Amino acid sequence: MGPSFVAALAYAADADVDALRRAADDPHALQHRELMARALALVGAWVRRSRRTGTPPPDDADLRQAHGYVRHLAGRQSAGGTFVGGDNVLSPPDSAFTINDVGDALELLGPFLSRDPAAASLADELERILARATPALLTGGVHTPNHRWEVTAALARIHRHRPDPALVARIDRWLAEGPDIDADGLWSERSPNYAAAVSCPAFLVMADVLGRPELVDPVRRNVRATLALLLPDDTVETVQSRRQDQSRPFGLAPFAPVLWHLAVRDGRPDVVRAARRAVASPMPEAGVMAARAMTDPQLARPLPGDAIAEDALPSRRVSTFRDAGLVHVREAGRSVVLFAGSDVPAEGRVRSGLAASPTFLRVFSGEAVLGDVRLSRGFFGLGPFRPTTITSWHQDEDGALLFRLTETVSAGYHQPLPASRLRADAAYALRDEGRFSAAMDFGARDVDVVTLRTTVDVTVRSDAIVLDLDLDGPDVPWALQLTFRPGGTFSGVTDAAGGERVLVDGTGTYRVGDDVLEFGPGNGSGPGQPAEYLPGQDHAYLGGTDRPEGEHVFITGRSPGRTRIVIGTGTP
């Protein structure tokens, strides 16, 4: 019999709480969510000690420290029940994050109220906070998709503690909108972070408290998608995300409680394997994670046996996420990610809540990682290539996979206004042209359109990834930016003007230990084909950029025309 989830996490959780006991930062400087998370971690540690000995420990220091945080939390609660602080002012959903932890703390303290005065005193304070917050969560609104589920999870926890049909009725109003999950198992925000931290845990707690096992189904679907997006370094692909994690790696560890829950509930071998790896990974906020886990009965059970060995899996697995425009090709020692699902072309802007990454390819080959491949064009400041279509993959006679990514962008020059729209005062309407705004009544003018069509054919061979770039349109410069994960060394590249690395001719290499990625051939250099990344006017106008961090190399050229670039990964 193996350990429970909390037992497997115990060492990391104890270390986390030990650091919290020594924390010297001023509680006045902490936001409400951090105050309650710390209090819950301390309550969890105290309860774990109590469960080990069968009786409340004589030392109530953890509860007293937790109560100090909770008093500060009570001071942050507004007259309307929401909490003061953070960018979202008097926010019901942000308050729900805190109330979820209040609910779990009350659940953990419940068995000890008659036996320990410190536990009873802390629970009384938490009860008052919960009662003041309940009306706001029963009537308040939200502003992101996952907020609906954070609020419903808080209402479920309040109902678990103090049953009330009005709480269930409000949950059902949100649930009537339906789980925002697509046919491929991605929540609408496509974010691993919010899937792990909000949507999946919320549906699991609602399923448990309300006795509705069907609410576990969206979580199953998302976990299946998450495992299909798992990269060789045990991070989950994020390029498709519509939230803050779209530009940084996201580890598997935050999914550990969800994976363990489903592994115990369903016994699926792939989920069991992932749960084992997740709980063994470096765990952020292990103390509060362990405390939250203690309220989930499934996490008190050990993982079932692992029936399928890793080497019994298919040698090549291709996962396609059609709504997200994402394909993941997984092979022994190599992963290839293709992305054609940016929201920017359709929305015409870069905006919080949109998938905005121009990365259209990633290649993992052992320890050598080509983390971002982007194609810039000097075309009206419209930004990098963001493909809007990716064809269904197919295989040629040699087993190579063939993909096509496409995008068409246009801009124009505006003709004089028709006589019917002329004004004597020349005060024409301020309108957005697609690239910029001006008082020129743009919608009333005829336009001479200039168009650039970009096609990238990607062939995934056993020893290489072949890119055929085809740019059809005016004579403009382009630059393919290859961004490698730091830690390796280059050969074959030179420094261009401005200090950027450029591959002028031949083949370049990037070596990390025994793993090598080759790339080339170079396509010349010079002032007519500068080695530069152009983020587009939405960023450049404000002096910003979305250029990814890492080690950059450029291969440059000019349109129109077709150019082949090969990224060698070696023979698997």
Low-confidence stretches: none
Tally of alpha and pi helices: 14
Major sheet description: 9 strands, mixed
Strand order of the largest sheet: 3-4-5-6-7-15-21-18-17
The count of β-strands is 22
Percent of residues in helical segments? 25-40%
Bin the strand percentage. 15-25%
Radius of gyration: 27 Å
Gap between N and C termini, in Å?
38 Å
What does this protein structure show overall?
With 572 residues, the protein is an alpha+beta fold. Among the domains are: 138 residues; 159 residues, no CATH class. It contains 14 helices and 22 strands. The strands form 4 sheets. The chain has a 9-stranded mixed beta sheet, with no helix packed on it. Strands 8, 9, 10, 13, 14, 16, 19, 20 and 22 form a 9-stranded antiparallel beta sheet that branches. A hairpin with a 2-residue loop joins β19 and β20. α1 crosses α12, α5 packs across α6 and α6 packs parallel to α8. It is globular. The mean pLDDT is 94.
Summarize the structure.
The protein has 572 residues and is an alpha+beta fold. The chain has helices at 5-21, 32-53, 61-75, 92-109, 117-139, 145-161, 165-175, 192-210, 217-228, 256-266, 269-280, 286-293, 344-347, 537-540, and strands at 235-236, 250-251, 316-321, 326-331, 334-339, 361-365, 368-377, 389-390, 394-395, 401-414, 430-432, 437-439, 447-460, 464-472, 477-484, 489-491, 494-495, 501-502, 508-512, 515-520, 551-558, 561-568.
